[in-house]
Amino acid sequence: MLPRLRRFAHGLCGNATDADDLAQLTVERALRARLQWQEGTRLDSWLYRIMRNIWIDIVRARGRMEKVMLPEEAGAQTGYDPVPEVEARLELGNVMRAMAQLPEEQREAVALVLVEGVGYREAAEILAIPVGTLSSRLVRGRNALLTLLGGV
Amino acid sequence: MIEDKTLLAYLDGELDKRSAAMVEAAVAADPELARKLERHRRLRDVLHASFDPLLEQPLPPGLAAAVSRNKVVNIDTFRRPPKTGRPATNWTQWSAIAATLVAGVVGGYMIKPDAKPSGSGPIVERDGHIIAASDVAQALDTQLASAGTTGPVRVVLTFRNQQGEFCRSFEGKAASGVACRLGRDWRIAGFYPGDQTQHGDYRTAAAGDPRIMALVEDMIEGAPLDSSEERNARDSGWKAGLSLPAPG
Asked: How many angstroms away from the CA of A64 is the closest CA of chain B?
């Protein structure tokens, strides 16, 4: 489970240092809050939700919300320079930077469904949104990523 | 006309058979739609190719430490709550969480609540207890520490705990821990992920995991079993009632 949590953190955060800090905070909070986990429910979803909530708190605390919640078109123009080589595009840092350009609401949807492989219903529950909303965010996020990554 | 939502839900395997067949028919008839699907398939592949290697990396020290500060599932050191206090399941919940986090490190195994002790995980939960399973259980049942066996799981030490139960410490590539015999099960008293950076077979020259040794010292009553005591215990099915050490 820990490596998967860490991967989710990398999907959410723009860089590896923040991602590992987030993973650590999540583990610490989960262990403190362990009595709140209900037996019989999915532990992985519970942990993803804790991580997502901490991440949102951090983002808000840093006051980045407004800045990152730019329209997609603006996001696509803010200077991400897709490197032409496929290898370079595949490099984790580049993909993370592209992910980081997405608005949070799209990024978390993409990270959960595309990277973590969580089903729509479960992902919608983790994010506390209707499945229809999740699916719209996935469309917008993925189309934006295709642009950011130079069409892949 | 197939909407992006539907096309992507198809790619994500979220459509029922009938809707999926409709998408496939539309894709077959429309090269532009087929290209779009292909681009999104490649995007998904790129994301996996980028993020999945993280699963194989050793955990950063800070994260590993966050778990190891908390993760010892040493049930013996828990003071059992009074009957009138919090329900005892709180402890088992906590144990399951901690053990699952650790089990995740070991190799993606999950402890499934309510699951029967089956499958390939080295530990499983049953009736609120975490018990050894698969090759760990087998090694604990049969292996003699004194035989110096090699393999994926190696029994290091056999001893009795303060309750007189037989306990055995084990080390392996995937996991190390201590388990005590209860009925026909080996109940896990403590559990740590193995050395993930190692490849190939567990090195037999390992000096012993200091965390495991500390746990053993916490639990042990008297001296570890010698080779003939260990053999007798095994051959009599690890029944705790036999040859209890003299009290005091």
From this structure: 24
Question: Do B130 and B193 sit in the same domain of this protein?
Answer: yes
- For Cα atoms A14, B104, B8, give the angle at the middle one, nearest 5 degrees: 55
The answer to whether residue B85 neighbours chain A at the CB level (below 8 Å) is no
Residue B31's domain comprises 4-54
Partners of B39 on chain A (C-beta within 8 Å) are 146, 151-152
A 59-88 residues inside an 8 A Cβ radius of B: none
What does the mean pLDDT of chain B come to?
73
Q: Which residue has the higher pLDDT, B105 or A54?
A: A54
Task: Confirm whether B166 is domain-assigned.
Answer: yes
Chain B, 31 to 70: residues with Cβ < 8 Å from chain A are 39-40, 42-44, 46-57, 59-60, 62-63, 66-67, 70
| B128, B71: one domain | yes
Beta-carbon separation of A115 and B103 below 8 A: no
Q: Are residues B50 and B82 in the same domain?
A: no
The backbone torsions φ and ψ at residue B181, rounded to the nearest 5 degrees and listed phi first, read -75, 125
CA distance B171 to B118: 21
Query: What interface predicted TM-score (ipTM) does this complex get?
Result: 0.81
Check residue B81 and give its pLDDT: 38
Q: What is the DSSP letter of A25?
A: H
Same domain, B98 and B27: no
**pLDDT, tens only, A62-117:** 765 455 444 444 444 444 444 444 444 457 888 998 999 999 999 999 999 999 99
Model pLDDT, residue B167: 93
For chain A, say whether B28 makes contact (Cβ under 8 Å): no
Q: Which of B9, B46, B93 sits opposite A95 (nearest CB)?
A: B46
Domain A2-148: top CATH class: mainly alpha
- SS3 letters across B44-86: HHHHHHHHHHHHHCCCCHHHHHHHHCCCCCCHHHCCCCCCCCC
Cβ contact, residue pair B43, A119, below 8 Å: no
Query: Are B31 and B125 within one domain?
Result: no
Round to whole Å and give the CA distance between B112 and B126.
Answer: 9
